[in-house]
Specification:
Elements lengths: L3 E6 L5 E2 L6 E2 L3 E2 L5 E10 L14 E5 L13 E9 L7 E8 L14 E3 L2 E4 L1 E4 L8 E7 L4 E3 L3 E9 L6 E10 L3 E8 L10 E10 L11 E7 L7 E2 L5 E3 L2 E4 L6 E3 L5 E4 L10 E7 L2 E6 L19 E3 L8 H4 L2 E9 L7 E6 L14 E3 L4 E9 L1 E11 L5 E2 L14 E7 L8 E8 L1
């Protein structure tokens, strides 16, 4: 049986890992005042055309007979990484590759152990925006490529910086290469170990090694589980209930209980002139477009099913002639939530892949006493976006949706299960299994 390599993209904030004293890398824009719309999506390796829209958490699959990204690579899907810099000045950007452990900190591998070719490359593809009120330059590159080929499984970070100076880093992009020598069986159930068919969901997971990959001890394997690409509530290395000779079982494991939350809200700013889904009205002030979203209250009622994409987004614009990526406008999006009084025991954020699932000043909502509402304004490229309102308690610093969106066992969430292997004496975590549940 041929072993398979997969690339999986995950997004969230740069933070300090609770598992390690080192810095944990997450996909993140570090200069949000000038750099926008950091994106990964599938492209066809032959035509370089986008495949299946603009997913921000894609994964690629490839047999490992050849190096990932080499001349003999027959993989038809690659990753295109792109971002906008808010000017028509041409900047010199470079990216370098880092190998990471499961917690996002740098591993002990030297570059020769995980990459063939160069560890740094310049970004040479760029285009200026066309006929837009907000000037910007769209930069992009495809990865992996013939100059930078991957040879080891595990987690990676691409560091993008300006003028060859790593002190001028503008963004990190993280992804994983998985060599699946394990089989994952998992299900999501509403009858959790703390309550039945109410606010929570619980995962039961079995991890089995493939017969061709039997080596080491099962105690050298561990898992990480993420909900909708988030890191704030991830289950990191929960202890299995049973360890067998060839299997790990996570049944009735309380560490694998998650808030069900609610379906994501969404808005569509495809038009400069007409209000799309979730948009009350579009206005134009001097040189800026404004999209005022409906002032909808926090949700505390019964579950109502809505279709969403679990926090992801898509660049989209009408009346473009050549390329949406360089002809789409930037708009000031205005979120408003009526609230008679502010909460003094916590902070409200706008959450989702739009803000890389992070918690920071650019997505922290403010309270306006005169208007009696929470509000946030952000410059966003035209398109369709999922989002939620997150409440972070001042006491435990944890995100909860129960105050702002409600939490229901019926909610459809995306769960990603990562299986890592760290044999005795190894200097890095190997990623040996991955499964996505919808």
């Amino acid at each position: 049986m041929r072993t398979i390599l997969s690339i999986v993209v995950f997004l969230c904030a740069v933070t300090v890992s609770v598992q390690s004293a080192g810095v944990a890398y997450r996909t993140k824009v570090l200069t949000p005042e000038t750099v926008k719309t950091l994106r990964m999506r599938y492209v066809d390796s032959r035509t370089m055309e986008p495949i299946g829209g603009n997913p921000v958490r894609p994964f690629l699959v490839k047999p490992i007979g050849e190096e990932l990204g080499g001349e003999g690579d027959t993989q038809q899907h690659l990753l295109e990484i792109s971002f906008d810099e808010l000017s028509h000045e041409t900047k010199q950007y470079t990216y370098t590759l880092l190998h990471l452990n499961a917690d996002g900190t740098e591993s002990g591998l030297s570059s020769s152990e995980y990459v063939a070719g160069f560890t740094t490359q310049d970004i040479t593809e760029y285009e200026h925006s066309l006929n837009t009120s907000q000037l910007y330059t769209h930069y992009s590159f495809v990865f992996p490529n013939e100059d930078m080929r991957l040879t080891a499984s595990g987690n990676y970070a691409l560091k993008i910086y300006e003028d060859g100076d790593e002190d001028k880093t503008i963004a990190f992009l993280c992804f994983s290469v998985v060599e699946p020598t394990t089989t994952i069986t998992a299900k999501v159930r509403p009858n959790t170990d703390i309550e039945i068919n109410k606010r929570y969901q619980q995962l039961d997971i079995d991890i089995s090694r493939q017969l061709s990959a039997v080596n080491g001890q099962m105690t050298e394997y561990f898992i990480v589980v993420r909900q909708n690409g988030r890191y704030d509530n991830q289950a990191y290395a929960p202890k299995p209930n049973f360890i067998e000779s060839n299997k790990l079982r996570f049944t009735n494991c309380k560490a694998l209980i998650f808030e069900g939350g609610n379906e994501y809200r969404h808005f569509d700013t495809y038009s400069n002139y007409f209000a799309g889904t979730g948009v009350d009205r579009i206005t134009h002030d001097r040189n800026d477009y404004h999209a005022l979203l409906f002032a909808e209250p926090f949700r505390t009622g019964a579950y109502i099913h809505e279709y969403d994409v679990d926090g992801q987004w898509l660049v989209n614009a009408e009346r473009t002639l050549y390329d949406i990526d360089t002809e789409a406008e930037y708009m000031w999006v205005h979120w408003t939530v009526p609230a008679p009084n502010p909460w003094f025991d916590g902070i409200v954020y706008v959450g989702g892949d739009l803000f890389e699932n992070s918690l920071g000043p650019r997505n922290r909502m403010q309270y306006d006493n005169s208007r009696k509402c929470y509000w946030l304004n952000a410059l966003v490229k035209q398109g369709g976006y999922d989002y939620q309102y997150w409440f972070v308690s001042s006491e435990d610093k944890k995100v909860t949706l129960q105050r702002t969106e409600g939490s229901h066992w019926e909610t459809e969430n995306e769960y990603t299960i990562y299986v890592y292997y760290r044999p005795f004496g190894s200097r890095a975590d190997q990623l040996v299994g991955l499964q996505v549940l919808h």
